[in-house]
């Protein structure tokens, strides 16, 4: 437990923050704090250490984890920030520098009963196996040619769709996964063996067991991200197993109180990206599962090469570009405003179809669009194809909750209107969107895409995680 010492402020210098020294591999238990509370720790890492990891786990509430080499870690100054929405946080450094690492546990919401442990490998000690937290990426992994990095994820009974994937970075990493014991080059349950660092192992019906993951340096690699996740049967209408913890401050509320709680939840962990970075983000979030070289275009449903886009083919009307589902002219016309680059509502779209849609409101009816069967348009509205009607609706609900003009995003209060022909921060048509939400419920493709958005941007869409909230907040008076 950290020991807090009150120190009077000195005129010459600010008081030093109290810090507790961690011991290698020894957990500090019983961590707790009210909203905003911080606990600070240090771990001295010697020369020659490898696979340094810090893991926060257990208890209730929501604490975030920040780590920084050589100086105090904060939410804005760190080498690793883990903000999952629960107490399951992880920061890992495959090749750490000899230094004192500073660790901060910060209460995003009140939490209790959490444990923190820091560990690393030494040349003479037992190799460290890093425990992965479901859905929490471990980034910047690196190793020499012929070297192994070791991990583990604990999968409970009833879990489905265990997915372990590597992505990004340089060099050549090989992924190995095995249930019950460490994998090797000759003993494994999955070894993708593909060119590049984009490797995935999937187990549709995994055992209730510890799954061990190995990253092997076929060649020296660096900057690789590792993510492991699984699904459990949802309860109470939720589509995500972390629902009860992440949305604890929203569950059971209605009306204004619910809206306020979801506004806070939807903002949590949101890391703004540049508009140029959106190209690469969409290549990942909207990747075609049947052809990883392609993306799926939202309105046409066409699978198209990631490289056949308007940043490369600027005058080609059949290339794809970045569609703002909530049109940017309705509340955030400048790139510096967060809504402009928020990938929860940005999708790949055919250039000419995107132009046809323009900034029209969403509503029923109109004339068919020849290049995009199932889509209709008229002078002031656009109707997307049936397969994405619900997806579009839930993006719009998200935008209306995420941006209420009460923060520093530069976006005003976005609102759904009961009519078309809107302007300013308004967008229609509310009851049409509710009808589409009912007719096209959340499906596996939307959940998959949502998970990938969270990996890249950090925050969640409450209406994908718990669709019933759309009715509560936007369904009043809709037939």
Features:
single chain, 479 residues, alpha+beta, Jelly Rolls, 3 domains, eight-stranded mixed beta sheet, four-stranded mixed beta sheet, 27 strands, 18% helix, 33% strand, disordered N terminus
Largest β sheet strand count, sense and barrel closure: 8 strands, mixed
Approximate helicity band:
10-25%
User: How far do the termini sit from each other?
Assistant: 56 Å
Low-confidence stretches: 1-16
Q: Strand content of the residues, in percent?
A: 25-35%
Count every beta strand, where a strand is a DSSP E run of 2 or more residues: 27
Our count of domains comes out at 3
Shape: globular
Query: Which quaternary structure do these chains form?
Result: single chain
Mean pLDDT: 90
SS-derived structural category: alpha+beta
Calculate Rg over CA atoms.
24 Å
**Total number of helices:** 9
């Amino acid at each position: 437990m950290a020991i807090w010492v009150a120190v009077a402020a000195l005129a010459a210098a600010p008081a030093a923050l109290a810090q507790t020294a961690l011991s290698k591999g020894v957990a500090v238990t019983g961590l707790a704090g009210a909203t905003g509370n911080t606990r600070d720790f240090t771990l001295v890492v010697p020369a020659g250490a490898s696979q340094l990891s810090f893991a926060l786990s257990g208890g209730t509430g929501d604490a975030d984890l920040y780590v920084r080499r050589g100086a105090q870690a904060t939410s804005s100054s760190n080498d690793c920030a883990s903000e999952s929405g629960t107490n399951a946080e992880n920061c890992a450094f495959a090749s750490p520098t000899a230094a004192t690492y500073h660790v901060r546990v910060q209460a995003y919401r009140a939490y209790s009963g959490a444990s923190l442990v820091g560990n690393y490998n030494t040349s003479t000690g037992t190799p460290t196996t890093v425990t992965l937290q479901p859905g929490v990426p471990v980034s910047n992994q690196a190793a020499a040619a012929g070297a192994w990095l070791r991990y583990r994820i604990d999968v409970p009974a009833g879990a489905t769709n265990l997915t372990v994937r590597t992505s990004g970075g340089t060099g050549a990493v090989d992924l190995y996964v095995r249930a019950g014991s460490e994998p090797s080059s000759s003993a494994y349950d999955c070894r993708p063996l593909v060119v590049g660092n984009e490797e995935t192992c999937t187990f549709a019906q995994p055992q209730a067991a510890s799954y061990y993951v190995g990253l092997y340096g076929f060649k020296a690699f660096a900057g690789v991200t590792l993510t492991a996740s699984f699904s459990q049967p949802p309860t109470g209408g939720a589509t995500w197993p972390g629902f009860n913890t992440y949305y604890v401050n929203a569950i059971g509320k209605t009306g204004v109180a619910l809206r306020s709680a979801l506004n806070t939840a939807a903002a949590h962990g949101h890391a703004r990206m540049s508009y140029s970075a959106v190209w690469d983000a969409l290549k990942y979030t909207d990747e075609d599962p049947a052809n990883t070289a392609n993306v799926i275009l939202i309105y046409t449903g066409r699978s198209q090469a990631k490289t056949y886009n308007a940043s490369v083919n600027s005058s080609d009307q059949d290339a794809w570009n970045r569609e703002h589902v909530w049109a940017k002219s309705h509340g955030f016309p400048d790139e510096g405003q967060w809504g402009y680059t928020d990938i929860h509502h940005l999708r790949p779209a055919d250039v000419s179809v995107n132009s046809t849609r323009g900034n029209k409101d969403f509503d029923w009816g109109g004339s068919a669009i020849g290049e995009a069967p199932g889509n209709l348009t008229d002078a002031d509205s656009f109707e997307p194809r049936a397969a994405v009607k619900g997806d579009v609706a839930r993006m719009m609900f998200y935008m209306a909750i995420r941006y209420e003009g009460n923060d520093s995003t530069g976006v005003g209060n976005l609102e759904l209107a009961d009519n078309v022909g809107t302007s300013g921060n308004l967008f229609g048509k509310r009851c049409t969107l509710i009808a589409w939400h009912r007719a096209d419920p959340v499906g596996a493709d939307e959940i998959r895409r949502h998970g990938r958005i969270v990996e890249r941007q950090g925050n969640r869409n409450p209406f994908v995680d718990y669709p019933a909230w759309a009715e509560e907040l936007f369904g009043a008076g809709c037939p």
